[in-house]
């Protein structure tokens, strides 16, 4: 499965409550924090709602074997 890293690079302070909930829903709390998600349409949709606050990076998957 393809994975992406979502990084919070701008603070959601001063943004709408909806945008704050989207950022929290992605699992982000602090600026500079990153989380790994499976690249699915629902995650891509959440990222599309707050592109001015987050960045995404492709993550290479290590199969460990």
Task: Explain the layout of strands and helices.
Layout: E1 3-8, H1 17-25, E2 34-38, H2 41-49, E3 54-59
Antiparallel strand pairs: 1-2, 1-3
Labels describing this entry:
65 residues; alpha+beta; Ribosomal Protein L30, Chain: A; three-stranded antiparallel beta sheet
What does this protein structure show overall?
The chain has one domain (3-59): Ribosomal Protein L30, Chain: A (2-Layer Sandwich), CATH 3.30.1390.20. With 65 residues, the protein is α+β, with helices and mostly antiparallel strands. It has a 3-stranded antiparallel β-sheet with strand order 2-1-3, with no helix packed on it. It is elongated. The chain has helices spanning 17-25, 41-49; strands spanning 3-8, 34-38, 54-59. The chain contains 2 helices and 3 strands.
- The number of helical runs is 2
Low-confidence stretches: none
Class by helix and strand content?
alpha+beta
Number of strands: 3
Radius of gyration: 12 Å
Strand content: 25-35%
| Biggest sheet, spatial arrangement of strands | 2-1-3
CATH class: Alpha Beta
Considering the protein shown, what is the CATH homologous superfamily? Ribosomal protein L30/L7
**Through-space gap between termini:** 15 Å
Helicity level, as a percent range?
25-40%
* Tally of separate domains: 1
* Arithmetic mean pLDDT: 94
